[in-house]
């Protein structure tokens, strides 16, 4: 059975058990993502090159007439209670963030939804995007919820606004000042393509990845050091500080020559952060060209440069991720490997020849100090309605 189908069956079974009086009438799915290159560039108005995954978050449910919203999550890692009910928000009675944490992503999207008034509904959510693995489990939940709401109370269908609304939900209800990449790719993903996203104009260029001799391997380090803590917002501030010091709105507008000329008057750490971002924006644009030209060795080289820059200049890697990249690269037929997502644990992404997959996985199992999980994956479609 295809992956999304398994998650759907699980959600439907749970819905019927949880709400025996209702028939599930709506089902939607939104994917997680893996970013091939372009890390910590989105909130600097730079380029990113993610692809949507076949791993999805599913929401199933039905409309109700009691004016209440009933939610249930099947995520094992979610905090208690896994089931809750509250009145449909109104102007005088808005939703606010609180416990349980998992529901904040759902509540944020409901609160900021772009059409209304919403009817009551009952819904169950299930996912096979690993939680906290750097594959955008939270964005996939937000986008799935938005897609669900579109079925019971249609908005104007503007996909950019949809992604921006989900990002706003994460900012305001999960206190995570993320960029736009994760929500954007979960909405816009295309089967067989990575998307080069210009995070300034929000224009998208699909880049085909359909070569059967090429494999995209995700390796989960299965470690998670905190990201929603102070590290991510601190990086954002440092980038802004660098841009301001150079008289620009964002690092997208700063050239490497300009940065180097200003080195003496910048804080050493701020300089390194800006060095990563400016070099990464360039690598991402070059990477998209290399991928289009099927120049995988060139793309792989850029991936490793990206990893090193995230490790040395941006300081968002960790021992486990460095180890995974080093072991992956230490064999034949591997084009490139790097950490993916926010960092401090989570996953690496490795581009390699199909013929090299088995040996590479074995090598990682034999040499990685932790317990890795592997996903051989492919670029998949963005959020969509599932037929019941
Ligand atoms: C997290 C954020 C994204 C992006 C990445 C780093 O996944 O949600 O917006 O900034 O980190 O590239």
What would you note in describing this structure?
By secondary structure, the chain is α+β, with helices and mostly antiparallel strands. 39% of the residues lie in helices and 24% in strands. It is built from 11 helices and 12 strands. The strands form 2 sheets. Strands 1, 2, 3, 4, 5, 6, 7 and 12 form an 8-stranded mixed β-sheet that branches. A 4-stranded antiparallel β-sheet has the order 9-10-8-11. Strand 9 and strand 10 (345-353) form a beta hairpin. The longest helix has 25 residues, at 268-292. It is globular, with a radius of gyration of 21 Å. The mean pLDDT is 96. Bound molecules: alpha-D-galactopyranose (GLA).
Topology of this protein?
Elements (H helix, E strand, L loop, with lengths): L2 H16 L7 E12 L9 E18 L3 E6 L9 E5 L14 H11 L7 E8 L9 H16 L6 H15 L7 H8 L4 E6 L4 E6 L5 E11 L6 H15 L10 H6 L6 H25 L3 H17 L6 H11 L4 E7 L4 E9 L3 H11 L5 E5 L6 E2 L3
Parallel strand pairs: 3-5
Antiparallel strand pairs: 1-2, 1-12, 2-5, 2-6, 3-4, 6-7, 8-10, 8-11, 9-10
Helix pairs in contact: 2-3, 2-4, 3-4, 3-5, 4-5, 6-8, 8-9
The structure holds alpha-D-galactopyranose.
Alpha-D-galactopyranose binds next to helix 5.
